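Structure, all two chains, one model.
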Amino acid sequence: MSAANRKVVLASRPSGYPVESNFRVEESQVPEVSVGEFLVRNAYVSLDAGFRNWMNEGSGDDVLPAMAIGAPVMGLTLGQVVASRNDAYREGEWLMARLAWEEYSLSDGADFISRLPEPRNWPLAHYLGVLGDTGLSAYFGLLDIGKPQPGETVLVSAAGGAVGNVVGQIARIQGARAVGIAGTDEKCERLVAELGFDAAVNHRSVDLAAEIAAACPEGVHVYFDSVGGPLLETVLAQIAEKGRIVMCGAVTAYNAIDPSPGPNNLFQLVTRQALMQGYLTHLSEHRYTEARAVIAQWLSDGKLKNVEYRLQGIDQVGRAFCDLFDGRNFGKTIVQLHDEAP
Amino acid sequence: MSAANRKVVLASRPSGYPVESNFRVEESQVPEVSVGEFLVRNAYVSLDAGFRNWMNEGSGDDVLPAMAIGAPVMGLTLGQVVASRNDAYREGEWLMARLAWEEYSLSDGADFISRLPEPRNWPLAHYLGVLGDTGLSAYFGLLDIGKPQPGETVLVSAAGGAVGNVVGQIARIQGARAVGIAGTDEKCERLVAELGFDAAVNHRSVDLAAEIAAACPEGVHVYFDSVGGPLLETVLAQIAEKGRIVMCGAVTAYNAIDPSPGPNNLFQLVTRQALMQGYLTHLSEHRYTEARAVIAQWLSDGKLKNVEYRLQGIDQVGRAFCDLFDGRNFGKTIVQLHDEAP
C-alpha cells in the first residue's frame, strides 16, 4: 500500500457545464483508521451526471450536502476494504459506496454502502454498469413501467448513455423494436451495429420529429425519458395509443434536474390514453438480487453487452466527468484508479 | 306534435368565452321524414364545454366538422323517436345522440347514437348526468386510474362541475377523503354540505398552494385533473408518493384543450414515483352496463346524488352554455326543452 493518497478536489464551482479546470488533483497521506472506521482502496470511480447538482452553491438537500470548494468531490466508487476497525466491514470485502474521487477513502459505514453480490462471475466494473445502478435503472424502468410487448417500438433518449444503451438492449430481448436517440452520427451507428438497435436518430437532426416518425412508423409505444424538455414534447406528439412514458430517475439523478417549462401537449396523454410514470431505482432494492440474476443470464447468453467508456487514473476523473456532458462517452463512464483493479 | 321546430343557430363565432349574442333562436317547420330517416323530439340538451372547440373557424377534425354560421349548433341531446322510416329505430324509443340544439332532429342513424338502457328506474335526465357520460367519466377515470384507497386523499379540480362532483362522491364511497377545488365560496360550501366532500378550496384563494396543503396534509394521493395549466403545477408540488394523476377526457372534451405551457415540475413524477394517465370514456363502452349498475346501486342506497343545473326551454340553451364558462353551473348543466319531458 502506497502512503500517498491522491484525490480530486473541487477547485471552483462549474457555471453551466463543468470544465476540467473546475477540478484539481491533490495529494495527501493515506488516513489512519480509528475505531469504528475502515479504509477502502477505490478501484473504480463511477461518473454520474446527477452529482453535478451538488457542485452548486447552496445545493444541499436531504440526500447530500452541497460540495465544498477544496474538498474531495463526492461520487460513487467501487473499492476493497484494506483495513478495518469496524466489525461490520472485514478486510478484503468489495463495496460500492457514495464516497469521493480519491484513491483511498475512510468510512464509518454511513456512506450509502452496498456490498457486491457473491459469487461474482463478471468483471468487477460490470457492477457499476449493467449489474449496477445503471443496469437496474434500465431493467426496472423499462419492465415495470414501459412493459414493452413483442413488436412494439421502444424509443430511448440518451441511448448512448449508461442507462439508455441497456434499455434498448433489454427492449430487443423482449421482442420489441429499439430506436435510440443520440447526439452524434457515430453513436447512432454504434447503437445499431454493436448493440442491435433497429434504428437510431441523431437529436441534432434538422427535422428531428420527421426522423423519429420515420423510425417509429407505428408511433412510440414506450418512450424511455431521461431527458425531458423539448424532446418530450416532440415524442408526446407521436406517442401511440396506450403508450407508456418512463421517467427515469436513478438514485444518483435524484433532484438533479432543474425546473424547466413542461411540454405544451400533455393533453396527448388523454387523446392517446397514454401514461407517464416516474420511479426511483433504489426503492426497488429488495428486488436487486432477482434482477441481477436475470441480467447475468442475458450476459451469459450473449444477449446483453456491458458497454463501458473507461479512462485510466485519478488524473482522468475530472475529464471523464466533463465528457458526460460533452457527450463523448458511449456506455457507462468509469475511471479505473489502479492497475491491479480486477 | 307541433308543426314548428325552434332551434339555436350559431349567430357569430365566439372570441374566447362564448356570450349569449353568439346564439340566436330561429323557427322552421318540423322536417319531413324520408326513407331511411327518423325524427327525434328532443327532451333535453346536454351542455358540454368541449363543443366550444368546434365553434372556431377551421376547427373541423376527425370527430366533427367546424360548426357553420347560421346552422344549428351541434350538441348532445336526449330525445324520443316520434316518427321513423328506418327499421333500426322504432317510434317511442329514447336515444342520446350528437344532434343539435333544436326541438326536433332528423337523423339517418349516423349521429353517434346510443340507446337508453332498459329498464330505466331513474328520471330521464339522470342519463345525461350520473348515469351518462358524466358519471361514467368520473367512474372509469377515478377507479381505473386513480384507484383511491381508504384513507387516501382525492383532490378534484372543477369539483362543482358535471364530472368533478361525481368524482368526489365516488371517492367518498371508496373510503377516501374528497377535497374539491371550485371557483366560488358558495360552491365550496355546497360540495361539503350537500355532497359530503371533506373539504373544498376556492381556486381564487390568495395562496391556493397553502390552502391545498392545509386540506391535504398527507399530500395528494389522487388528483383528478380536468383543468391542466398552473393548477396542475401547484398540485404536482404536493403529490404524494406513488400518487396518481387522472387526466380526464370525456368524449365531448376530445380535442377541446388548446396547447398551453406544461408544468415546470414534471420531475416530481420521478421523485414521488407518481403516475399521470389519460383516458377517453367512450372507449370503455363495453363496460357501460356494468358501470351503470354499480352507479344505480349507489343512487338507490342514497350514497350518490345526481346534481343538476337545469334551465327550461330552447331560449335558454345559449345562456346555459355560456354559464358553463362563467362557472354559474353546479353539477350537470341541462336544458329541458318541453314540459312533457319525463
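Chain B touches chain A at residues 228, 232-233, 247-249, 253-255, 257, 259-280, 283 (CB under 8 Å).
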